[in-house]
Amino acid sequence: METRFSFKPTGFSGLALCVPKIHSDERGRSFESYRSADFEARFGKLDWFQEYISESKRGVIRGLHYQVPPFAQPKWIAVLRGSIFDVALDLRKSSATFGRIFTTELSMENAVSLFIPPGFAHAFQVTSESALTFYKLGAPYAPECERGIFAGDPALAIPWPLPEKEWILSAKDRNHPVFSKAETFS
């Protein structure tokens, strides 16, 4: 079978960039972004429970969000329009990368997406005028399991591309605890 995309390692167990093979011609371009058999061969059985689309303007930071067991969620995120600076924070105490962040640019132009396993907090900042993002979630939204970490925590030193004066966060995201007070995974 022809390879439609590849998984690029990130240095974090289970976290992978998904890079499609892009087909371009005079009409434009197209690519396959997801194939269940390939994802399951790489990450195990995946049951996608929910899909979301969010539209955000420049400077918006969504996150750092995650859910704890029994509703910890694998996530797959792609950008349908614009560009974002994407962040995954490893919350798995047993991991060699516990407390470290992974960052990347996701955009419609580069067509790269990100698979995030359970045990990571996730956030992004919109770097284009606006961005349309698409997520698949591998567990249903469960408010009692929902958690967050303040994206501006100085201890995390996330290199947000836009200055703090341009940040747009919800009241909920502004009031999340810092990493040292956040609930983590075994």
SSE map:
Elements lengths: L4 E5 L6 E5 L2 E3 L2 E3 L5 H8 L6 E8 L3 E7 L7 E7 L1 E8 L10 E7 L5 E4 L3 E7 L3 E8 L8 E3 L22 H4 L12
Antiparallel strand pairs: 1-2, 2-10, 3-4, 5-12, 6-11, 6-13, 7-10, 7-12, 8-9, 8-11
Descriptive account of the structure:
By secondary structure, the chain is mainly beta. It has one domain (5-21, 33-181): Jelly Rolls (Sandwich). Helices cover 6% and strands 40% of the residues. It is built from two helices and 13 strands, in the order ββββαβββββββββα. It has helices spanning 36-43, 171-174; strands spanning 5-9, 16-20, 23-25, 28-30, 50-57, 61-67, 75-81, 83-90, 101-107, 113-116, 120-126, 130-137, 146-148. The termini are far apart.
Would you kindly provide a brief summary of this structure?
This protein has helices spanning 36-43, 171-174; strands at residues 5-9, 16-20, 23-25, 28-30, 50-57, 61-67, 75-81, 83-90, 101-107, 113-116, 120-126, 130-137, 146-148.
User: How widely separated are the two ends?
Assistant: 39 Å
Helix content: under 10%
Number of domain modules:
1
CATH class: Mainly Beta
Helical run tally? 2
Structural class: mainly beta
CATH topology: Jelly Rolls
- Largest beta-sheet characterization: 6 strands, antiparallel
Which architecture per CATH?
A: Sandwich
Give the helices and strands as they follow along the chain.
EEEEHEEEEEEEEEH
Which parts are unreliable, with pLDDT below 50 for 5 consecutive residues or more? none
- Beta strands, count: 13
Strand fraction equals 35-45%
CATH superfamily: Jelly Rolls
Question: Numbering strands along the chain, what is their spatial order in the largest sheet?
Answer: 1-2-10-7-12-5
Global shape? globular
Radius of gyration: 16 Å
Quick check: average pLDDT? 94
